[in-house]
Specification:
- The structure holds two protein chains of two kinds.
- By secondary structure, chain A is of the alpha/beta class.
- Chain A has five helices and eight strands.
- Chain A has a five-stranded parallel sheet with strand order 5-6-7-3-8, sandwiched between helices.
- Chain A starts with 8 loop residues before the first strand and ends in a 7-residue tail after the last strand.
- Chain B starts with a helix and ends with a helix.
- In chain B, 49% of the residues are buried.
- In chain B, helix 3 packs parallel to helix 7, helix 3 packs antiparallel against helix 8 and helix 7 packs antiparallel against helix 8.
- The chains are: A alpha/beta, B mainly alpha.
- At the A-B interface, helix 2 of A face helix 1 and helix 5 of B.
């Protein structure tokens, strides 16, 4: 068991508003090293909004978010943040440089190999399928700092069985070295070690 | 850690432009075509052409800059790149400012600088004197960064708005008017034999003020747009 005393991300009484509607309120959560948190909820219940709040892209309507200093947060949203005109290797390099991740060539080669994209490394992103694009976006995780907190919005989207296996292995490895993951997924997680902690979002009551 | 963000965004934008050369050359082509229409429409009288040249060249440069700025952030927002750029600083959206500055600089390098470089050619077409052409280049060199900075602000403000392009022109063109007046005024002054120092001083002051304020406003607009 990894050290569970340090909370690397904590949210207190978090509320999120989308226009007139309150998506959720009074949400408490904490993420510790080695944990995988699976955010569940029906469509439109604020899973993506919660991840965006935790990533720092949006501000909560109420409540506060505390993060442990020095822990990077890696957010991968619905969109893959890839450019059609860049090659696979260039896209990975740009995103890694942007975030100050490891830019060593062997790290990137290893990341692409893991996701079965090494033979396509010089292909323009334009020529890739949706699943392959998702793999390029996720390959960035291999270059991130080892104990970063990953915030993944539907990471299994568009992935085939092989891609899901690669991602599951990566998640397990990340948790084993003390990293943490908070993810949404509409497909049931097949991960067993570590067992994912479920966070269920409920419809906000009017009161 | 803002240096990697600035460098990464700038290098990526220039590389993307190099991959899409035709798109990158469009503002320049627009400038060339629009400017060339005036001698045809107004008539080949050299005195008239000399007189309207500063205004025509400056107006066309302004429109070319506005034309190319509309898509500055739109594609990056759609494909999620903008979110990633905003988060790059680590804590929250602190990297909005370096992103805004990198985008303005890349826009100037891709449209402003080429305009400055081809302007002498069109100065000759309007029969401007050597000194006037030098003044034209100097005024464009000082003025086009203002246009890029303001256009950048407009692009960020109209992000995600339908018909954002039209709104951008309505919002930003009025702000560009001082640059237009003093930029073309400098060339006219030299052409008529007067000193252009006053015009250049004001243009320089405008550049400094815009350079200090526009990126901050752009960064704020980007934060709102990605929330």
């Amino acid at each position: 068991m990894t050290d569970t005393t340090a909370v690397i991300l904590a949210a207190h009484a978090l509320a999120c508003r989308r226009g007139e509607r309150i998506l959720f309120h009074g949400l408490n959560l904490d993420v510790r090293p080695g944990q995988i948190v699976w955010v569940r909820g029906a469509n439109g219940q604020g899973k993506t909004s919660l991840l965006r709040l935790l990533a720092g892209l949006a501000r909560p309507a109420a409540g506060r978010i505390e993060t442990l200093a020095g822990r990077e947060r890696v957010y991968i949203g619905h969109a893959n943040a890839l450019k059609d005109d860049l090659t696979v290797a260039e896209s990975l390099m740009f995103l890694s440089r942007l975030h100050g991740f490891d830019t060593a060539a062997d790290v990137h080669d290893g990341a692409l190999r893991r996701f079965g994209l090494h033979s396509r490394r010089d292909a323009p992103v334009r020529t890739l399928s949706q699943g392959q694009r998702r793999r390029v976006a996720l390959a960035r995780l291999c270059a991130a700092p080892p104990t970063a907190l990953w915030l993944l919005d539907e990471p299994f989207d568009a992935l085939d069985a092989q891609g899901m296996t690669a991602l599951n292995e990566l998640l397990a490895e990340h948790a084993a070295r003390g990293g943490s993951v908070l993810l949404t997924s509409h497909v049931p997680l097949t991960l067993t070690v570590p067992a994912p902690i479920t966070l269920q979002l409920h419809e906000a009551s009017a009161a | 850690m803002t240096a990697p963000v600035f460098g990464a965004v700038l290098a990526r934008d220039l590389r993307l432009a190099a991959r899409r050369r035709v798109d990158a050359l469009l503002p320049l082509a627009f400038f060339a075509v629009a400017v060339s229409l005036f001698p045809l429409g107004v008539g080949p009288e050299p005195n008239t052409l000399r007189q309207i040249a500063p205004g025509v060249l400056w107006v066309c440069a302004l429109l070319a800059a506005m034309l190319s700025v509309t898509q500055l952030y739109a594609n990056d927002q759609v494909d999620g790149s903008l979110e990633q750029m905003m988060l790059a600083g680590g804590a929250g959206t602190t990297s909005a400012l370096p992103v805004a500055i990198a985008k303005a600089l890349s826009h100037w390098l891709l449209t402003g600088l080429p305009l400055v470089l081809i302007a002498p050619l069109f100065g000759v077409m309007f029969d401007l004197s050597g000194r006037s052409i030098a003044a034209l280049c100097a005024s464009l060199a000082l003025g086009t960064p203002i246009l890029s900075l303001l256009g950048n602000l407009g692009a960020a403000l109209t992000l995600g708005v339908r018909n954002g392009g039209v709104l951008l022109i309505l919002l930003i063109v009025p702000l560009c008017i001082p640059a237009l007046i003093f930029g073309s005024g400098a060339v006219s002054a030299v052409e008529s034999g007067a000193s252009a120092r006053g015009h250049f001083s004001l243009l320089g002051a405008l550049f400094i003020a815009t350079g200090l304020l526009a990126p901050l406003a752009t960064a704020a607009a980007l934060r709102i747009a990605t929330e």
